[in-house]
Amino acid sequence: MFLGIDLGTSAVKAVLTDETGALVAESSAPLTVSRPQALWSEQDPEDWWEAAGAAVLALDSDKRRAVQAIGLAGQMHGATLLDSADRPLRAAILWNDGRADRQCAELEAAEPRSREITANMAFAGFTAPKLLWVRDNEPDKFEATETVLLPKDYLRLRMTGDKATDVSDASGTLWLDVAGRRWSEAMLAATGLEQRHMPRLFEGVEISGDLRADVANEWGMDRVPVAAGAGDNAAAAIGAGVVADGDAFISLGTSGVSFVSTDRLRADPDSGLHAFCHALPGRWHQMSVMLSAASALDWASNILCLDVTELGDCARRADPAATPIFLPYLTGERTPHADPHAKAVFFGMTADTDAPEIARAVLDGVAMGLRDGFDVILRSGSHVDSFTVVGGGSRSAYWGELIAGALARPLVYREGGAVGPALGAARLALVASGAGTVQGSCAPPPAIDSVEPSPANVDYFAERLPRFRSLYRALKTNFQD
What we know:
single chain; alpha+beta; 24 strands; globular
């Protein structure tokens, strides 16, 4: 058995796979997000550790005893600041936190080669600007910082005692030379840090350490090796078999992601496109990210007093011609706008607008947001024939029909799609342990369904997209005010 642990934003998921990389069992434990001020998004690292233990212990004890290796995946970009005793100095600042917008410009001014080195534009959600915010607003905590870890790597520290990370997750810090797959002294210096503040770097399929004896005893398993693993999206790609050049997936989790695997670094930072290291040596990927995807559906479900399944059923009853346009920027937006101040908006409501139209507008809005990001990928020169679907939102068949129409591409649903990052983490552990190979263990899982874009939906979104985009442009200055 191989254990994959995925530290998400809303839950920690744990899965077990067999030696073929097939899913055997899964469990999860919930997490909550704290928003003490506007634009802020934080979590207590101790909550991560408690949820990880709960998720692992929810798995069958006999299967846990058979675990041969563990892999880690997790939400990217989070800033976990540790003191000299490896204790968190403050709550971790998460990927969808927008407070460090001003520091992005300061960072790029401090190191004019920033985009060349990191292959990315500075976004408020990335890790380095968060450290500049801490320096400016909590100088005592900045001075006391001995180590900065990404979220999943805090779990690794508690599990193994090792300070380590992988190159895919490190790509989202703005401290990595993404082409060279190593820490950049120049980018660290621009943030007032040195390499001593950073964890050791590994490829995703390398062993980073062994499970501590006390943790192994608590979890009911041997002191097995722990693979470096990957950031959540690179891990999801491994789980979905998205490893060859041009392979792609759509992730419908808290955020929405369009991910394309590449055989070389293909960067276009000025467009807001992410270009990161993949979880496998010698491979990279492109990624567009919208900050509210399935979370927008959760939000709409709450205000309409429906569960997510009922939301889709409600949306089916909408009159498309009477459906408002929804800008899905509940927590700002990343690709293509790089705007933490962007707000969600309903446009075009009348006295006749009812719950079905509101529900449909939200599903439409996220689908069009995904198309915004996908168009950036297409303009970079990549070619995508179809998308595998991963993430909890992959369970909504009707939403899939709309997304296929907005992207004008077929969607493929595969086994284990709802636990993609955790499945990918387990597969990386399998390869790292020597029990499997990339070719054999990282192949696409069996397809269980597919959705072709209907001509009617393609035409519908082609007509609505220009207005959707013009609304953001018209409202942008109002968002900042």
